[in-house]
Structure to design on (253 residues):
């Protein structure tokens, strides 16, 4: 293998390590209540409106209880099932999305405060009880779910495979477009790994930028995929026409 392929593969490995390290460090830097919350759909309802406690620290609220509200020294927030939505792209309007990110900032600020109290119910409609939570400054690595690591693996594999094929055939447009897909896919998966597996909330501004990067990566991956079909196994268009793909979708974005 010549120097050029080695440099390409080294650059790809460096990007993978940097992306994975950044995602892991940011995810672990978030405060942790030691809870795992999941959306709860009441009997007879088709929409999840509450949060249920699926995992609780020793001495904390019971597993299966409903998390009603968080109370700190300076703020109290009623909890909603939408607080755990994995992908904000599903929110119906930009106004609702702005409200969601603002609410995430409010919850993240609340979680960073000492003396956090969780109000909970053993079942819907019964009296509300309280538990004082010990908030850790950082999440434990074991609290990151399997889907977090899978998204990092998928993005890393995509980048490395694209770089490997491109390193072997750098002058062919098919491998070039596969490499472009390989670069775009981890931008989508590694950002989603951070915000889709949050304990409850992260800073709304950071969330917005991560979501924008995720959306951009998904669009550029789609552009790269279209370009692969236009260039492999043989060129169907002149290469300069491929620039229309990122131009059109970039303006749309």
């Amino acid at each position: 293998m010549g120097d050029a392929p080695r440099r390409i593969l080294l650059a790809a490995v460096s990007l993978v390590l940097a992306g994975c390290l950044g995602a892991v460090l940011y995810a672990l830097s978030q405060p942790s209540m030691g809870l795992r919350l999941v959306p709860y759909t009441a009997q007879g309802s088709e929409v999840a409106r509450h949060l249920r406690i699926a995992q609780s620290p020793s001495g904390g609220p019971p597993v299966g209880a409903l998390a009603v509200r968080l109370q700190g020294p300076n703020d109290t927030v009623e909890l909603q099932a939408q607080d755990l939505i994995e992908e904000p792209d599903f929110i119906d309007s930009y106004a609702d999305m702005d409200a969601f990110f603002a609410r995430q900032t409010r919850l993240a600020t609340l979680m960073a405060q000492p003396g956090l109290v969780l109000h909970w119910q053993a079942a819907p409609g019964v009296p509300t009880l309280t538990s004082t939570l010990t908030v850790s400054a950082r999440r434990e690595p074991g609290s990151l779910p399997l889907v977090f690591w899978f998204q990092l693996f998928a993005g890393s594999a995509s980048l490395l495979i694209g770089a490997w094929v491109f390193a072997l055939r750098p002058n062919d447009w098919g491998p070039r477009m596969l490499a472009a897909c390989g670069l775009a896919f981890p931008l989508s998966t590694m950002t989603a790994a951070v915000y889709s597996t949050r304990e409850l909330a992260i800073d709304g501004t950071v969330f917005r930028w991560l979501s924008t990067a995720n959306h951009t990566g998904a669009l550029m991956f789609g552009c790269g995929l279209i370009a692969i079909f236009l260039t492999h196994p043989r060129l169907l268009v002149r290469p300069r026409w491929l620039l229309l793909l990122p131009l059109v979708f970039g303006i749309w974005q």
Notes: The chain is about 50% helix and 10% strand. The longest strand covers residues 50-55. The mean pLDDT is 92.
